[in-house]
Design a protein that fits this description.
346 residues, 15 helices, 2 domains
Length: 346
Amino acid sequence: MVKIGNIQLPEFPLLLAPMEDVSDPPFRAVCKDAGADLMYTEFISSEGLIRDAIKSRRKLDIFDYERPVGIQIFGGDEESLALAAKIVEVTQPDLLDINFGCPVKKVALKGAGAGVLKDVDLMVRLTAAVVKSTSLPVTVKTRLGWDHNSLNIEEVAERLQDVGIAALAIHGRTRMQMYKGEADWTLIGKIKNNPRINIPIFGNGDIDSPQKALEYKNRYGVEGIMIGRAAIGYPWIFREIKHFLQTGELLVPPTVEERVAVVRKHLQKSVQWKGPVVGINEMRRHYSNYLKGLPHIKDFRARLVMINTEEEINLVLDEVIEKYAGYQIAATPIELIDYHQKCSLQ
């Protein structure tokens, strides 16, 4: 078993990464169904929470069926982060996570997210302020460093553990890499094998198949892995990895009927949580991912993004099932979706 504070997770847990504009309650619901062991909200601005910004407050919504679930906050001011942590605690998540990994300019260049990697002393002060202000287990998500000339994650890991974090998730890229190139897990493995480190270490970056999950588990020895982009439109990645780790066998990919069933649930949850207008509009970004690999699917996708009622969408999905009944999409490694412009996939 893996423990984060008083949270008990299974051996080698699979975590759903916090992803801006992706990891909302409807998406988390389908990932939980597919086997995600621990999930996080989209990242939330500490300043937004303090100002009572509607969008920030909305991201605090969590549901019992999601547990264990963490709320992730970001910011560059000790007082604001500490106050935001107190606000978060009222909503009773299982843990609180600090984002020191988002690389986009509007966050990093304002001294938050991955921008804090340029000042480790500040990162330590910010983390200590949050730990002192809450009784929740505090975890951190970060990167290897600002750039390849400042790979300071080893110092970061030791110092953040010293001020009381309960676990650390590390994305194997620097801020300057954004989401380009291959994630380097070498330093993640080095931290895991550091005798000074006694908190769980989770690796993140480029896990897009059961085979790679097993390879990285064995090679780097981490307590678990965090999955981001590979789960978008393919929540089955969690169950496929678990099955492969337990049996050494690959599961048959989801049928068209299974894909459509998950689309329907995602849509239903989206409408329930956001209302019919916003729920349907924001669901449009997901259809391409769920139906990827089906031949000549463009016409269906085009219709789905133009329809404005749940009933009509379900009728089109009925047509998809009828047209592709029995069709099997080849079991190939999942192509990582390019969301570089967002902080989605730290």
